[in-house]
Amino acid sequence: MLEALRRGASGILGKLLMGLLILSFAVWGIADVFNGFGRGALARVGDAEISEGEYNRVLRTDLDALSQEIGRHFTIEDARREGYDRLVLSKLIGQSALAEYGRQLNLGLSPEKVIEDLKADPDFHGPDGKFSNPDFKNLLSRLDLSESAFLKLRTADEIRQQISSAILAATVVPDAVVDIEHKWNNETRTLSFFKIDAAKAATVPEPDDAKLRAYFDEHKSEFMTPEFRKFSALVLSADALKTEVQVSEDEIKSAYAEDKASYDKPEKRRIQQIAFKDRATAEATRDAIEKGTKNFMDAAKELGAKESDVNLGMLTKKQLIDPAIADAAFSVERDALSPVIDGRFATVVVRVIEIEPGLESTLDSARQQVKDKIVDTKVKRLVQERADLIEEGRNAGKTLKEIADELKLTYYDVPASDIANKTPDGKEALAVKGAESVVDAVFAAEIGAETEPIDLGTDGYAWFRLDSIEKPAQKEFETVKADVTKAWKDEESERLVKEVADKLVERIKAGEDIAKVAEGVGNAPEMVEDILRKVNPPGLTEDAVEAAFALPVNGAASALTPDRGSRVVMQVKSVKPAAEPTKAEKDKIVSTLQRDLQNDVLIAYVTHLQEKLGVSINESEFKRVTGADVAAQ
Predict the structure, then answer these.
(1) According to the model, what pLDDT value does residue 23 have?
(2) Which of 31, 42, 471, 587 is 20 to 30 A away from residue 337, measured at CA?
(3) Are 572 and 552 in contact (CB under 8 A)?
(4) Distance (Å, rounded) from C-alpha 610 to C-alpha 110?
(5) Reading across the β-sheet that carries 347-356, which strands appear in turn?
(6) DSSP code of 337?
(7) Using CB atoms within 10 A of its CB, is residue 115 exposed (0-12), middle (13-18) or buried (19+)?
(8) Quick one: DSSP state of residue 22?
(9) Closest Cα to residue 25, out of 584, 626, 605?
(10) Residue 201 CB: number of other CB atoms within 10 A?
(11) Where would I find the H helices in 270-362?
(12) Among residues 160, 153, 51, which one has the least CA distance to residue 105?
């Protein structure tokens, strides 16, 4: 989930309000320290307070961005469950610490400089490459900020960037660390391994009732009924509303004429590209490829490029973000080299190895697509209109059942559902599109609490009421005896197979040939050559590869199979040290390690600032603002 949170904070909003990558610090557990906290102040860093309004604005913006990223409405209840409500406050505390330190250093920027930088920021540019005032105004509206308030935030963000840049400028990755990282990533090993036939290696006896009851008593928590929840739901389905939509022939003709290009099939080309650091190298390499003294792929590899760097894939012209490269790639003949191109980010040479011609559409060929698009547009409008009516009904105190009857919408009464949307007899509890999102929300809710509508994306919305909760209960031994028997046998089989594997490993370590050891208990050994630490060959798990890389040449070990039903026995046949890294490989390692090191340094520095300035969190006020105090009742 946190990875989705980080992705959801991209773009202008993310840059402005995420600021630096200061996401979490050890600031919790200091609640209500200051007597001077006023209502609406959530935390204090030094002399600065973080207000309820500031927190709510950042939280709302982040949750909106995350909702778009994950394709459903991410509510404050979701934020509390994931700990994101506290993550946002931690972020604001870290930013405030840097801002306070900047104030103590008397750092500042003139309004003119901030505006100049703002207009130069490509994130605020329109299609013409210039500052877009309408887009800027739209952003202010979305953030509910005035221009002066926005510039104040922007100024604070740039001051934090000044401080962080000064801190991080001296971050250096030692050559020895780069060397260790390269060797770790690129050392390879050749393994011989075989899978033990569990049926041949170990015979599991039938357990008596005494053993089964003892096993049951030791593992009672594994034999419980799931928690079930009784709830009702009103589902506003986009599919159900499609029957109300009518589309005329005139509408189809008009829509097609307005957007004909979108129904045409654009030409696609499979493009390969070599990037160069300077034009002279590009000209020389292109000339060598043209004359046949160099192969295209070999030339790319000499420059440190991998196949994935060279092969851009099957693309339309619009998918190439650099206009110069796009023009060249879509004007060159198949299998011919382009001229050297001075691209936006690099100097390149491209070639096209496959061309898929485009196709111009007709009204008849695009008719169904056009109609579907019109229907989708009308349905979206209908969904929003009905959603507004439902909210009006709820505000008027009507029940979901009453609203469903009035608007002729589907109302579902679910007597019992587990977290997997299953009834006690294993059937689907709520049979609608997006049921998973509804059930997740039901299991995050409290009885009687007001709940937000659930955004089902293109499928519509849902509202629910949680009626009761049936807690997990212990199953009786007799009802789960078959499951207990299977669990006991699986565990016993795993134990016996492990004993056999240990003996087989000892035989290999003693010098016996692995093929001889495998006779009678497994398949003939397989050989996998030159495997890397981060690659799991078929038949071997991550744990198996990790164990193999801890062994010397001729060393042996065993590990569970991917299905955990048996074990593999393996032997290291050879170890190949990593080759000397290319400059491109070293640069990539340095970049990755430097980024990680800078993050660690920055977090340590901001944590130190927080300790120096003093941080206090008003826990009771925070709970009130996020609704945690109500949820706990």
Answers:
(1) 38
(2) 587
(3) yes
(4) 27
(5) 311-315, 268-276, 347-356, 341-342
(6) B
(7) middle
(8) -
(9) 605
(10) 20
(11) 279-291, 296-302, 307-310, 323-329
(12) 160
Low-confidence ranges of the chain (pLDDT < 70): 1-40, 71-73, 127, 142-144, 628-633
Asked whether the beta carbons of 584 and 563 are under 8 A apart, the reply is no
Q: Which residues pair with 230 in a beta bridge?
A: 468
Q: What is the pLDDT of residue 545?
A: 94
Q: How far apart are the first and last CA of the chain?
A: 27
pLDDT at 244: 87
Strand pairing category for 454-455 and 188-195: unpaired
| Cα(171)–Cα(495) distance, integer angstroms | 50
Compute the distance between CA of residue 182 and CA of residue 197 in angstroms, rounded to an integer: 38
Give the pTM: 0.52
Task: For residues 124 and 131, give the distance between their C-alpha atoms in angstroms, rounded to a whole number.
Answer: 6
Centre a 10 Å sphere on the Cβ of residue 89 and count the other Cβ atoms it contains: 23
Quick one: pLDDT at residue 13? 37
The angle formed by the CA atoms of residues 508, 513 and 518, to the nearest 5 degrees, is: 80
Q: What is the DSSP string of 452-490?
A: PPEE-GGGEEEEEEEEEEE---BPPGGGGHHHHHHHHHH
d(CA 345, CA 324): 11
Q: Which two tokens stand for residue 318?
A: 């619009």
Residues 438, 412: contact at Cβ < 8 Å?
no
For residue 63, what are its two tokens?
């949750």
How far apart CA 150 and CA 140 sit, in angstroms, is: 7
- Contacts (Cβ under 8 Å, ≥6 apart) of 595: none
Q: If residue 545 lies in a helix (H) or strand (E), which one and from where to where?
A: helix 542-548
What was the pLDDT predicted at 357?
94
For the beta carbon of residue 74, count every other beta carbon within 10 angstroms.
24
Neighbours of 179 (CB within 10 A): 15
Of 518, 578, 567, 519, nearest in space to 540 by CA:
567
Inter-residue contact 8 to 70 (CB < 8 Å): yes
Cβ–Cβ under 8 Å, residues 449 and 629: no
- pLDDT score at 166: 78
Q: Please tell me whether residue 445 adopts helix, strand or coil conformation.
A: coil
pLDDT value at position 72?
A: 67
Residue in this structure with the two tokens 């877009």, named with its chain if needed: 132
Point out which residues pair with 559 in neighbouring strands. Answer: 568
109 and 103 Cβ atoms separated by less than 8 Å: no
Q: Would you say 434 and 454 are in contact if contact means Cβ atoms under 8 Å apart?
A: yes
Burial class (CB in 10 A: 0-12, 13-18, 19+), 515: exposed
Q: Where are the alpha helices (DSSP H) in 412-452?
A: 435-444
Crossing angle of helices 133-143 and 11-18, in 10° steps, is 60
Query: What pLDDT does residue 40 have?
Result: 58
d(CA 266, CA 286): 29
Q: Cβ(53)–Cβ(41) under 8 Å?
A: no
CA dihedral 476, 479, 483, 485 (to 10 degrees): 80
Q: Which two tokens stand for residue 611?
A: 């300790």
Instruction: Judge whether 1 and 82 are in contact, CB under 8 Å.
Output: yes
